[in-house]
Design a protein that fits this description.
- There is one protein chain.
- By secondary structure, the chain is an alpha+beta fold.
- Helices cover 37% and strands 16% of the residues.
- The protein has helices at 30-47, 73-93, 113-123, 125-128, 143-147, 158-165, 170-186, 195-198, 205-215; strands at residues 13-19, 50-56, 60-66, 103-109, 201-203, 223-227, 230-234, 256-258.
- β2 (50-56) and β3 (60-66) form a beta hairpin.
Amino acid sequence: MARAKRHYIPGHIWHITHRCHKREFLLKFVRDRRRWHYWLLEAKRRYGLVILNYMVTSNHIHLLVVDDGDRDVIPRSIQLVAGRIAWEYNQRKRRKGAFWEDRYHATAVESGEHLLQCIVYIDLNMVRAGSVNHPSEWPFSGYKEIQKPRRKCALIAYEKLKELAGIDTYSQFQDVHRDWVNESLGQGRSVYDSKWTRGIAVGSERFVHRTKKELGARAKGRVILKSAKAFQLREPGVFYKRHISPKNDYIGAENGYFWNNNVEISI
């Protein structure tokens, strides 16, 4: 299969989603979710990955990062984390074969209000799945770290997060973040929203048009759609054919990045 072109645009915020092979629940064990967290921290240490939020479930992950200008940081980080998790799991289980889907999906997200919407969408993943009633109950996500920053082994770039959200102080960001999550829960807005896992870009009309222009020939055939509170750039109607249960969020193939399952990862 031909490899997808990487949609690299410097300086963008990216919502990355990557699911286990055939949607199997290969991350169902707590030890593997903890190891994913460990290797994500290692990617931050090694490559300077700037992390804004994250979520690891039983069969897929969400990672919200910002590209600070080095085009290799994000793919190398994904390769490290995904590669080590797959190797450790297969060694322990004496298993062979792919652990992850070939592609991880990347959606460009506009800063400000749209960034906040994406953060809340990630936070509510396990609420949508029916596993918890509030994101604070799921330990393998960024919600608790955002609300209670760590002095050691912090994953999230707190100052960068409040800066990109357009909020003056981090304590104000925490208040806004907590209120948005609680408001979404109270109004039943924890439902699956395909733009965050299928879109190529999500934000204002101006942002989406600019992103399409920056992609150039790679955006050929993509369409701009208006959805609730946002515009999105995505593939045309083929992806509208079926409804996907929120318990098994679909991660679209468009804007996919291949990674090498067989690459040797240095420790």
